[in-house]
Write a structure and sequence with these properties.
Blueprint lengths: L4 H11 L6 H28 L10 H12 L12 H76 L8 H5 L13
Helix pairs in contact: 2-3, 2-4
Length: 185
């Protein structure tokens, strides 16, 4: 069987890109299956209902409308199958319609969840970069302070200790050595 060109292009459009996420591929396949089931179901219900007494699904346009109502579970009640075969076809159209809309809803939810996960991942990376960068800056600042203290210690040791008992600096600051009773203020 040769498929019409528009149907072939539609199938390629839905299924052609394999780099799409799985939930989008599933939604595309479910939508395509629903469209085929609605078209074939409309044809089959007309064939099943055509000769039935009190049948109201006797034309393809009416059957397409009925198929859309049934697949979306709206069911206005203006058209309905009266034969057993027609009702079995209706069950199939309902089942595929409900399943398809469930898959599409799940695909939309997965898309939202994926976006939120990506946003959180980007925020976590940015936070990690800031923390690591901050640690590097703190580490560099600490290293610079250690170098300054080392230079100060070297300068103090190069000058030597002050003349006297070595506690002039301590007394000038108002701190006495343990056991020293006199304080110079």
């Amino acid at each position: 069987m040769v498929l019409p060109a528009f149907l072939t292009r539609t199938i390629r459009l839905f299924l052609g890109r394999v780099d799409r996420p799985l939930h989008l591929q599933a939604a595309a396949v479910a939508t395509l299956v629903l469209a085929v089931v609605m078209l074939l179901g409309s044809y089959a219900v007309v064939a099943a209902e055509r000769d039935a007494p009190s049948a109201n699904l006797t034309s393809y346009p009416r059957a397409l409308w009925w198929s859309a109502e049934t697949a979306t579970t709206v069911g206005y009640g203006d058209f309905y199958p009266v034969t057993l075969r027609g009702r079995l076809i209706a069950c199939l159209v309902m089942f595929v319609g409900i399943t398809t809309y469930g898959v599409i809803t799940a695909a939309i939810a997965a898309w939202f969840v994926g976006r939120e996960e990506n946003r959180r991942h980007r925020l976590a990376e940015a936070l990690h970069d800031r923390v690591v960068g901050g640690e590097r800056r703190l580490s560099a600042d600490a290293e610079a302070l250690h170098e300054r203290f080392d230079r100060l210690e070297d300068m103090i040791s190069a000058v030597g200790t002050p003349q006297g008992d070595g506690d002039d600096l301590t007394r000038r600051k108002g701190r006495a050595r343990p056991g020293d009773q006199s304080r110079d203020h």
